[in-house]
Amino acid sequence: MSDAQRPFDHTHDGMSMTCRELFERLSEYVDGELSQEICEEIRKHLDGCDPCVNFAKTLKTTANLCRRLPSQPIPPAVAADLHRFLSDHLPRPR
Amino acid sequence: MTDERALIAASKSGDSAALDALVRTHQDRVYSFAMRMCRNVEDAKDILQETFLGVIRSIREFREESKFSTWLYRIASNACLKKRRRGVHEPTPEQEFSLDDLMPRPDAEGRRPEIADWSGDAERALLHGELSARMENAIDKLPKDYKIVLVLRDVEGLSAEETAQAVGLSVPAVKSRLHRARVFIRRELADYLAGPQTR
């Protein structure tokens, strides 16, 4: 695969981490699950790479948006069916 | 949670009122999870019944080494993964998501991809209610093994460790699936909010 075909797979001047390597760790980075040392390398890379900054920001936004999706409360008729069904399986009161 | 501990202890000794109270406490959570996983009320009802029947039958085996909700998600996850979708929702073919396929690609001349920052647009679209349906559809396109990890971790808010317990995977496997699933959803949102040229 040529460099042109290999997207995001290059280092910038003075960086030890490629975009590709950063891309692989981004979820762990936005979740705060990486060591100080790796976070520092990532921050160095982000300082000089706008596409990666925007990718990281929008990946974090994606995770935050998922968390804010509304939950779907159980409709009363479904709850009534559930309790009718379970009543045959609950232990008999002593 | 002391009240819940007391309910669990009473349930283990056969107290039907305590079991009933446990069901009522968690029925919304399980229903919402099941609906998001299968997007079909009839299937969600089956999963709900199977999950709480599992709770009634095996509450004595719950050793309280994890949160009750994590144990509950484990039973519900098994029920979801067993369930084949029916009606208009055909089963999503299981596939491995390759990171190479999900990474931004260069343009036809081999130039680095333009990546837009649409974070602010997403916030506004969410406030105006446009984005939820778009996100639910994107989540529904994920293969089931990835979808369940994303829903538990990012929608339901379980930790990586709790998600691993719920789906019976290692923590590194959960993180790997979660990352691929998030990148996929991010790309779907980018197409909508910024256009496919700048994703």
Helix and strand arrangement:
The complex is a heterodimer of chains A (94) and B (199).
Chain A: H1 19-30, H2 36-47, H3 50-67, H4 76-87
Helix pairs in contact in A: 1-3
Chain B: H1 2-12, H2 16-38, H3 41-58, H4 68-82, H5 99-102, H6 119-127, H7 131-140, H8 144-155, H9 160-167, H10 171-193
Helix pairs in contact in B: 1-2, 2-3, 2-4, 3-4, 4-9, 7-10, 8-9, 8-10, 9-10
Gyration radius of chain B, in Å: 20 Å
Q: How many angstroms separate the termini of chain B? A: 44 Å
What's the total helix number of chain A?
4
Q: What is the overall silhouette of chain B?
A: elongated
Proportion of beta-strand residues of chain A: under 5%
Rg calc of chain A: 24 Å
Name of the CATH homologous superfamily of the largest domain in chain B: Winged helix-like DNA-binding domain superfamily/Winged helix DNA-binding domain
User: How far apart are the termini of chain A?
Assistant: 72 Å
What is the CATH architecture term of the largest domain in chain B?
Answer: Orthogonal Bundle
Give the overall shape of chain A, derived from the CA principal axes: elongated
| Biggest sheet details of chain B | none
Q: How many alpha or pi helices of chain B?
A: 10
Structural class of chain A: mainly alpha
Helix content of chain B: 55-70%
Order of helices and strands of chain B: HHHHHHHHHH
Low-confidence stretches of chain B: 86-91
Describe this structure in words.
The complex is a heterodimer of chains A (94) and B (199). Chain A is an all-alpha fold. Chain A has one domain. Chain A has 4 helices and no strands. With 199 residues, chain B is mainly α. Chain B folds into 2 domains: 2-82, Orthogonal Bundle (Rna Polymerase Sigma Factor, Chain: A), CATH 1.10.1740; 99-198, Winged helix-like DNA-binding domain superfamily/Winged helix DNA-binding domain (Arc Repressor Mutant, subunit A, Orthogonal Bundle). Chain B contains 10 helices and no strands. The chains are: A mainly alpha (94), B mainly alpha (199). At the A-B interface, helix 1, helix 3 and helix 4 of A face helix 2, helix 3, helix 6, helix 7 and helix 8 of B.
